[in-house]
Design a protein that fits this description.
The complex is a heterodimer of chains A (39) and B (864). Chain A is built from one helix and no strands. Chain A is mainly alpha-helical. Chain A is rod-shaped and about 35 Å long. Chain A starts with a helix and ends in a 14-residue tail after the last helix. Chain B has 864 residues and is of the alpha+beta class. In chain B, 49% of the residues lie in helices and 18% in strands. Chain B starts with 18 loop residues before the first strand and ends in an 11-residue tail after the last helix. Classes of the chains: A mainly alpha (39), B alpha+beta (864). Chain A binds chain B through residues 1, 5, 8-9, 12-13, 15-16, 19-20, 22-24, 26, 28, 31-32, 35-39, and chain B through 34, 37-39, 41-42, 48-50, 262-264, 442-444, 446-447, 450, 455, 457-459, 461-462, 465-466, 468-469, 472-473.
Chain lengths: 39, 864
Amino acid sequence: MTTSKLLVTLVGAAAIVWVLWYFLAAPRRPGAERARPRT
Amino acid sequence: MTAAPPAVDSAPGSGTRRRVTFPVAGMFCAACAARIQRQLALTPGVRDAAVNFATTKATVELGDARFEDVAAAVREAGYDVGTDVLTVAVAGLRFASGVARLEAAIAAVPGVTEAVANQAAETVRVTYVPGFFDARDLEAAVAAEGFTLAAPVAEGDPVERERRVREQEVRELSWKLALAAAVAIVSMVASMPLMGGAAIRHTDLLARLVMPLDASLRQALPWLYALDPQALKVGLFVLTLPVVLWAGRVFYRGAWRGFQHRSADMNTLIAVGTASAMLYSVAATFVPGLFTGAGLPADVYYEAVSSIIALILLGRLMEARAKGRTSEAMRRLLGLAPKTARVFRDGVEVVVPAAEVAVGDLFLVRPGEKIPVDGIVRTGRTAVNESMLTGEAMPVEKGEGDEVVGAALNTTGAIMVEATRVGRDTALAQIIRLVEEAQGSRAPVQRLADRIAGIFVPVVIAVAIAAFVVWFDTGPQPALLYATVVFVSVLIISCPCAMGLATPTAIMVGTGRGAERGVLAKGGVALEATASLDVMVLDKTGTITEGRPAVTDIVLVPVAAGDDGQDAAAEEAAVLRVAAAVERLSEHPIGAAIVREAAERGIEIPEAQDFGAREGRGATAAVGAHHVAVGSAAFLIDQGVDVGPFTDAIDTLAARARTPVLVAVDGMPVGLLGLADPIKPTAIAAVRTLKLLGLKVVMVTGDVRKVAIAVAGEVGIDEVESGMLPAAKVAFVKRLQAAGRRVAMVGDGINDAPALAAADVGLAIGTGTDVALDAADIALMSGDLRAAVTAVELARATMRTIRQNLFWAFGYNVVGIPIAAGVLFPVAGVLLSPVLASAAMAFSSVAVVSNSLRLRRFTPSFAT
């Protein structure tokens, strides 16, 4: 595996983890949890 | 006699109002709606909030929150409340000094965001939020400052307002689409010479399709191929820039707003996808060394950027047009009310706008005209077609003292009507409000779709990055180019929007269609529950039967009844005549039925004197020179009457669940009347169809067992529960539910209210004027039980459409994303170009909305 491929793989993996963390796992602003939208 | 205004929605601005529906600006996707809803739910004083992406409206249930709090919450979420503009004429403004004060006073009216006075024109331009704003508050504020309005303010016509908003949206989208499409076509042609050596053209489906064009283009436009490739690239960049900055700005702005709130939606996908293609192309244009140095061709993808934006805008445009049609039913309802009324002011007939009719006004309605507002007939007789409110096509006879509803069509005679309910209190206005709220509500099935849409976009971004890495590491050369194309395609093809639209559009069309058919569902929850019912519990009185006793049989003294039919009719009339004379003085419902029967037969009822009644048993009076007794057999025996000749007939009537009432003149029995609560003629067909739909039909009643069984037998119901008080009905419904059944209760909404509320679905049966709507989940505007069949059929059709929509939306993504990621490449050697991906994406949203629109053609079994 060339250096560039290794680099892209590492950066890609980090990006995936960050995207999932930022949009799904990171705590929202306080109180957001109990405010489940009522349907 | 004047009915109190029903308490569906109390006076606006009075502090007691609870539910408000208002527009929200800047919503692009279902995820936006969820975000605003979350923010509203967090606001202190807001008890409940529902935001509908399809209507771009929010409905909040307010506790002590004020307009400012709600508006602040919407802005906090990154959006704004939608406003409308109204221009009011103020008398004498030109020479007045307190203009600034007037502006401030108007701006302080709840729901008003801005007020600008124009002294030259003597007008004030008021910017307000529909739903929060009430014209009466504005009038009061103007009056408090010592000014008078030159003309009353009618809050902007909702039909007109809706149309204007749609038109503006369509116009703006059209212009942006025109630019993006023109640039896309020019770019595609201009890119041809640049694609000469591009490796990807052999694998890209679209490139393969356009390859033959390349040769003919080379012949047609040789000068294009003679141009300097670098100059061509710069030219394409200049062309593409306005597409990105103007036509596609909404996507980037929406994505950024979402990013700040840690939420990702379809704007994120489009923005990241097109921005990647754009940045790649810009780098290849201005620093080609970056690519050529690494041995890569410096290809550009400007045409992909413009095409993607153009295609998605095309999808949005078609969606906006289709969404306009989903609210068509509402527009039709609003269009029902006539615009003017012939009001008598100081004895003179004047034609005034219907909005200006006040309670107590007398107005004339000529044959063929629509009744402007709700009222009571003061003079005249006519037949009124109320089909727009009840779904019932037969005109209803109306005479003095009868209630008529606004928007009904007066058919045969001229009537003078006294207005009892006007403006937002009329039956039509309430129906419209109910439909609006129902259309804005969310069905439980949407919870799943919302949850999936929320995690969908981040997952798609992750998949796109993964695909990029895999292609870069293991794909053919030039790997960076392939990897970029795949990355962009995956982002562009996935469409959370179709998922977001699947439920609300179907609910909107379904509830709208129901309203046209006299079935008012109070929202998605009611429709979803109705679609999955097992048992339908019918109340007897008022639901299966007419709800009031009527004379069904007249038996004459066996010897008196001649063979001649004419004689018999005359005899019957004579019996009814004396019986009605006595009963006219009684207050018993049985007495009322006898009087009604006599009146319907055109019998002139004589005066009676010396009236005496024995509670629940009978009555006596003097009619002319005769002593007449009317009542039960026991009562007449007490009066010394020999009921012997009627003994057999009484037994026969009792066996058929009729109430026997004997009539005696001067101590001699002359006739026997049989009374019963007659079965509605349509009930039998309704019950049969409900059974055909797979529902178990049960009848409950407070009546005695014998009557209950007779009625149930006549309409074809096998299971009967009799002698039940309201609490017992509730217990019965709960028992069924405990056994795992999903139960609907159909009742007339007053004594059945507890059971209606306890059931999974409560269906209130009645007329448009009776607002028993509050207790039930679904209101059947006509008294026809067949409307319950329509409700079930409509609910099932709506849920079927929702399931189709969700299946299509999810299935599309499940199939599309792997193809875009290139799973077909090792097998078939083809890749999906980002341009094709965007076309597929636009198509999926349009397909879902179109499928929902098919519900407009829903036809129930019964054309009630």
